[in-house]
Amino acid sequence: MSNLFEAIPFIENPLYERIISDISSQKYSIVDDFFSEEEVIALRHSLLLKDEEAAFKTSAIGNKTQELVKKTVRGDRIFWIDERVINVAEQMFFAKINDLKTYLNQTCFLGIQDKEFHYAMYPKGTFYKRHLDTFQNDDRRKLSLVCYLNSEDWQPENGGELVLYLDGKDEVIYPLPGKVVIFESQELEHEVKPVTTTRLSITGWFKTR
Ligand SMILES: O=C(O)CCC(=O)C(=O)O
Ligand SMILES: [Fe+2]
């Protein structure tokens, strides 16, 4: 009978090792080119299609009072991704994300068993005020992952920087295409500065159950 533990070879991945070491030393990690230019283009296209569909469906409804309350804190539009019904670009996205998740579970004791991801679109003038990614009575979110899908010519004057509030110097991150930022959901307060141009991303969480 074969031994289960011998059946799965472990191959060290230098990128993932760097992410793990960054997170353990500073609670966050930034990878500039986690997704290639082609991958970003495909995911951006999927996001824009989702937004068109949603605009079409919801144009006639909506609780305006709730919307106003929400918009003083955050102004992005989000679309949750259901992994059971995904297109080719999203399959590629989850293949990479699941690979990282498996590696983290093999090497760290985070116990990530669940995940959730959504597209996000910040129209001109919107932002997300300083916050922590955990809800009251729910501490399952362990790591936050933000993947930027903006175009190659994104400029600093477009705004939309992600600011991570650290004990010492705050980290200001430009939402450049292909970049992925991973941070400890329960530890790091952060904010999305107002944008002057539509800002596109996928945000998600690795969670315990
Ligand atoms: O888009 C970002 O840079 C961060 C988004 C965020 O903080 C959130 O969705 O909770
Ligand atoms: Fe957040």
From TrEMBL:
Keywords: Dioxygenase, Iron, Metal-binding, Oxidoreductase, Vitamin C. PANTHER family: EGL NINE HOMOLOG-RELATED, HIF PROLYL HYDROXYLASE, ISOFORM C. One of its GO terms (molecular function) is ferrous iron binding. Its cofactor is L-ascorbate. Residues 108-208 form the Fe2OG dioxygenase domain. This is SM-20-related protein. It comes from Winogradskyella arenosi. The keyword ATP-binding does not apply. The keyword Amino-acid biosynthesis does not apply.
